[in-house]
Amino acid sequence: MKLSRRMVLKGIGGASLALPLLESFAPRSAKAQEIVPPFAVFFRQACGVASQQNTGEIGNEPERFWPNAMGALSAATMQGRAVEELVDYADKLLIVGNVNYGNFDFGDGHARGAMQGLVGRPPAVNGAGGDSEAGGESLDHRIGRELNPGGRDSLYMYAGTPGGWLGGPCISHRGMADRRAAHHNPQGAYDAVAGPGAGETSEAAALLASRQNSINDLLRDQIGSLMGHARLSGNDRQRLQLHLDAVRDLEVQIACMGEMALEQTLDGAEPIYQSSDGDDIWAITRMHMDITALAIACGYTRSAAIQIGSGNDGGNRYRDPDSGQLMENYHYISHRRLSHDSSGAVIAGSDLLHHKVDRQFGQQFKYLLDRLSAYVMPDGQTLLEHGVAAWYNDNGNGPGHSTNNVPWILAGGANGFLKQGEYVDLNGGQNGSNVSLIHNTIGAAAGVRMQDGSLMSDFGDPGLPRGVDNALLA
Amino acid sequence: MLSAPGGGPASVKSGSSPKVDNMVERAWVSGSGTALGCERGSRAAHWVGGVVALLLAAGCSGEINVTGGAPGGSEPGDGLPGGAGSPGDGDGDLPAGSDVSDPGSDAPGDGPSDPFDPTSGDSDFGPEMPASAPRMVRLTHSQWENTVRDLLLLEAGDELPEFRPDPTVGGFLFDNDSTSLQVDESLWNGYQRAAVDLAALVAGDAARIAKIAPSGSDDAATGAETFIRGFGQRAHRRPLTDDQVNDYLALHAMAPALYPSAGAYEAGIQMLLEAFLQSPHFLYRIEASDEVAGEVIPLDDWEVASKLSYALWGTMPDDSLFTAAEAGELRDAAALRSQVERLVGDPRVEVTVQSFHAQLLEIEEFYGVSPSSTFYPDAPGDLGELAITEHELFIQDLVFEQDGGYREMLTSTRTFVNDDLAAIYGVSGTFDDTFVAVDLDPAERKGIFTQVGFLATNASSADPDPIHRGVFMAERIACLHIAAPDAATPPIPATEGRTNREVIEEHTEMPGSICASCHSTLINPFGFPFESYDAVGAFRTEDNGFPVDTTASPLIDGEPTMVDGALDLIEALADTADVHECYTRHWLEYLHGRPESEDDASITERLGDSSVRGELPVRQLLIEAVMSPTFLTRSTEELP
Hints:
A: alpha/beta, 12% strand, B: 24 helices, elongated
């Protein structure tokens, strides 16, 4: 068997793609006109942003994050604000204000944000604080389950020190109190995307596939036999079913590989992927973004989530770009104090430091947009134009852990589905919890539909407004 | 009490990792929400046992319910272990009193006489019933690695892949919650790659094949079946059925065509190894037994062998256990106890003991210790790492050299210091970067919670943190439940001429406030006694120019109990059965890989009772925990 059916698309930024034969990507003329399927990528920041507020520690803090005017985005409206980092993409952005999370009883402001940011539901157990678990499936997982090949899980990756508040990875959930594992090491994520046959000659890959598929037959029988146990619990059955679903036959034509430069970059991940140094964290983040763009371009997934830092991002120390020195850990800065709570001494100028961290997140998000823009698909459009990438937060601001006006910065029109180049308020600026509106809108933009073919409208807590916010649509 | 300095293990250089370092690191996974998050101090609501005071979560109203059981522990048992609990002689021997000829009589407090029958014997604590638990328990990543090394007899330098970490489970302290260990596509991909690579490694080396292939495996006619039955029994950890053998034979027959560059024999081995390493019978520890005997389902010999081996060693059974299982000996109480004592007496149990304490006490958080150079200019920059080394040496010495139990862990003045820690502890003498055993001043120190690690971790960079010290002691050590704090916690005000305690009291104990309901009764009383230790753990008598006040009335044994200082608090805790039951409960969670259950009440009370009387060294606790029907049988009720 040969791999001649694969083609290679050159990316602008040096990455290339050994593309699988996916019908919608295929260069055949009959298919070339078809729309590349939409997707969604979620890039999560913790601890709120340096927006205008009055804090007990600093006093009146000026607005440093949001554009200075609603409506059309421009260099002028973004100037001096953290979103200025994205000015090159101003015409592709949809900055959404007034995203208000549910004021659910998580017993902890970070848990309330992190466990709700992609879920929009109250916790599995009220008031559990640092032991909180989410109350339902996360949006990235829902998109993957419904739209990915074979219902494959969304790609979920994590950058930063392991462990920490809420145990580290905490934004992607298979269901209530069913948290997903994240790839820390980008190499592992790449291996998953590329598949076991990556890098092999066509003949070797074919032999590998034949062997593995024969073994898979045996394994399916074994798992099936175990599932036939008369006294198997629901928990056992659910986990075995997940295992059984994961046993996929290898298909030579779906190898999805980055070019040598990416693989060489990934070689550098091992020593730094658990580092607390901001430079290392951003290096790992960019690798995750490289893999995300590759995986989406390949058709491996239509949903990905990249989480930076633990539940309160308290283990990471970003660098002050002006001095090059490590700042206090981000959680301290967001609290404006030298402690994980309200007991430490005030950090002078920490509102400005928070703003610097916000800008660094913005720079990483821009890198993601660069990578998505580097892939030119068979229809001549960039990958970014086919989907939507979201830079979102757990909280609205720092010490207050506000559930209101939580930043959601969208980029990409999802094949013309979403409005672009504007700063708008969700739900017409009305007060009240409304996070499910942004969730359903993004889900719908990624292609999730109800059984009757209508736009996704059932995601999130039934007690909150749900459905698509038409004001966000193109 | 423990012995005087000088009898400890070999000293360890600071900066170098003692043997335990690597083993523990390998077992650590996530630290489960261990950072001092803002609004920290909450742990999941969970069942807290029959004798533990439970403060209702509704705003910590101050209402205290003591549910079931008698405060102070149950009635004393009528039989004491024959000398168990006496400090050992440091030679690694098991506790005295392990009489294999009469296994029932030396069980602390007289547990069930038949470890497979919860109702056997005349226990003072009631039947020891098993809790509902999964039948399919996926190996943790460290168990997978250990198992692969033992199954394939790998060499020390052979590297194994690092799998993506498993997720944390909120409210569960350890890394082995069996209900949440899953195989999704990403992990499956990792298993697949590992199987291919390992099979190639072994099959490509005749010497490696020879090590794992049963005699006769190279026979052209019968070798394949010989290999499948022999190696397969070790991979599946039980004999293969004929159908399973035939399935593997069919796979073996395909091998020559699929490995064209290998010889037929090597190809067959490689194909089979790939399959065995991906089999669910390898990746899971399976409890398939379903025959009810009395009120439980006893595990069969093979299941017992695996459950013991993974619980105590974190790996597959060794040849001795397999042989005992094959001979049907593991259903015999005396033979079983003999095997259990062998396992607990083996150095491989050290990883388990270290990993348990590392996770229970959140040792990973020690790395975050960062005292202010303004207030503590002499504090070493690697204080957290030094504290970890001290902790690991302390556990190793106490459990395996001194044969100590939880009482000694709480009260021992013996620890290990280098020059930096000696300075903090105020130990006189000449020290360098080598860790050596010392006895700390008994007027200032008692046990693990007066050591630098706990004290400095639960402190800000400048001041001790009585809130977090108190929360940790109340929740983790006394198994009290504390509701999560209000989300809008106001900042702690500046000291302004007051002591740290006065600031905290004013801030958290305002009469009638929602904060006071928890802080005044549950949290602060467990934290204020530690005010005699500063933010790096050094002893102090003054705070901000005023004498420290370490008096408090923590809730001990269900009652507010007046104590004067940390040593008084620790003595009170060490004398309280609830506290020993709490420690036992955590061990049961870890050994079973599941959250605590109401069904654990009898064994928890029995072992807690022995422990509080100083008659249950940690290693004896392990023996008793796995020699119980709670461990060796299944509930007739499956999980939902």
